[in-house]
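Hi all, long-time lurker, first post. I run a small reading group and we've been trying to get comfortable going from sequence to structure in the token notation. Rather than ask abstract questions, I figured I'd post a concrete chain and ask someone more experienced to write out its structure so we can walk through it together at our next meeting. Sequence below, copied exactly:
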Amino acid sequence: MAGNKLDESIANFLRRKHNLIIGDQTAEDIKIKIGSAMPLHPIEKFEAKGRDSVVGLPRVIEITSADVYEAIRGTLLQIIAVVKGVLEETPPELISDIIDKGIVMSGGTALTRNFDQLMTAETGVPCHVADEPLLCVVRGTGIAMENIDLYKKSITKR
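-- Answer (accepted) --
Happy to help. Here is the structure in token form:
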């Protein structure tokens, strides 16, 4: 879900700043190829292909990693704000473990270049990306299902 928000942020940025309408796949390609949660040095470039929103014709523009950083920074900071909120509500006895072991980031957004460094800088807690972050949810669900009797007490009914 967060990855889709980043793609949407990139598409909205290009529409606003460059009058270029791009598809979802193009936004994702841009994010993967030159996206970063922190400024890159040297700056990287990407040819974005889309439709000019003013004249309606195809157009190609060159965007930079600085553009993408500007586009996604707000969304990444929203994610970090949620993490900070959770940390603020976490009992002190668990905070000690989190400080010692750090935050393990999973999912596609964890693969955003330098997001772990930004998360560490903003929360003050060491962060790292899980091994195979795209598979964490599936594996965790499988483990929970294999051990459903152990987890029944922690499942809330609505």
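A couple of things your group might point at:
The chain has two domains: 3-71, 91-156.
Residues 19 and 53 are 5 Å apart (CA to CA).
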